[in-house]
Write a structure and sequence with these properties.
Elements: H1 5-53
Keywords: Membrane, Transmembrane, Transmembrane helix
């Protein structure tokens, strides 16, 4: 049974949307991880400096 072109276009659109949402999720996750890493790094260096000052 042949698939109408419109349904096929819609299917490919949804596949692109799925791929895009997955890509965005990965980017957000990486961004959050980087932020957490840098925040933790700056906090530890700050507390380390304070510890050395005392």
């Amino acid at each position: 049974m042949p698939i109408p072109p419109r349904v096929n276009e819609l299917d490919s659109f949804y596949r692109k949307l799925e791929f895009l949402s997955a890509f965005i999720l990965i980017v957000i996750t990486v961004f959050c991880l980087c932020c957490a890493y840098y925040c933790g790094k700056s906090k530890t260096t700050k507390s380390y400096k304070e510890f050395n000052n005392n």
